[in-house]
Amino acid sequence: MQDQHRDRVPAAEAETPKKRSVVLGIxxxxxxxxxxxxxxxxxxxxxxxxxxxxxxxxxFVRPLTFAALTGRKVITGLFSSESSEATLSSAVEHxxxxxxxxxxxxxxxxxxxLAKFSHGLADDFLTTMYLAFTGPVILAPAMNSNMWLxxxxxxxxxxxxxRGHRIVEPGEGFLxxxxxxxxxxxxxxxxxxxxxxxxxxRRDLEGETVLITAGPTQEPLDPVRFISNRSSGKxxxxxxxxxxxxxxxxxxxxxxxHVPAPRGVIVIxxxxxxxMRAKVFENLDRSDIIIKAAxxxxxxxxxxxxHKMKKTAARLSVELDPTVDILAELGSRKGDRLLIGFAAExxxxxxxxxxxxxxxxxxxxVANLVNGEGTGFDSDQNEISLALxxxxxxSLPRASKRELADRILDEILKLRRALAAPVHGR
Length: 426
Known about the structure:
Helix content is 36%, strand content 22%. The protein is of the alpha/beta class. A hairpin with a 4-residue loop joins β18 and β19 (393-400). The longest helix has 20 residues, at 401-420. The protein starts with a helix and ends in a 6-residue tail after the last helix.
């Protein structure tokens, strides 16, 4: 009887689901005290939490607080503090932690940490582990308003977002420094919800191959001048990041941009519309979904001079010809693939989106108004409308391009199901 009882215990234990594992990185700022609330919220969601504190964070909150909340040793340095001699296990612990956990959330993410993450500096456990970490990363910044709005901080944030990291934006209000404005750490419950959403993200593009174009093209006028446009490539890169994180094999054909390459994505650089067309059709046959987010120049100079045109006092006239219409050609050759076009307009958004949907034989057109209000070209945010083959037309509220990328992918999958559904009476 005793033997039978012993046999049943391991079986019951084997049925216990494994907890999802999270690394909670804590930066050095007054908002570090809120990290204790976040830690408790994550534990209450039944996550296994490994806390990593920077040296500065330990000046605000003691590690014992987090050890009590998690029931685990808090990592406070790159080498073990339990021995005066560095051991192999302590020297590579940052690699083990990076490999053993599913998600990294940093709260508060100080301006200093954002800068180190952005530039790949690794001088403590958290920043070293970050470079070895391959899973999703959530950053919850907190700092003085002027520090938050400084161009250097905003540039670092843009680079981290382009890398695929999710930013939980700080709130506005009274700050510890006495100022009032943006920079307060988001509420712990909001950050915990972002962690839950990221870990529960669907892998609904597993097995799919997605072909995406992004950025502008540059059409030469002579060896030193070219025609182009203001496209930053951020929307196309956000689409590539989102598709890859949802399990797709992604090929990104990109014009000249200053955006870091997304992780896990094949990036093919091109410069002109002709080069982009060649690479698109080279990769068409193995693609299931085509997303044409590139802003291809509409005109080019057919006969480019071999030498620089000299400036004179006389008026110069240049005859330009239309570039190849890649989207229209794709529309005629797409077969049963889904084709998504983009349209940046300055007026008559719905009319132009529907016109492009029909004339280019697209299944969806993502349209936005280009204006000077922080959306569209050059911005990290956008406000878009979708025209669908099913006849629907609707708008999505202003959000980060990364968030909108997931919304667009959601609608692509819904559209595919709708187009595949049988029509009654047939």
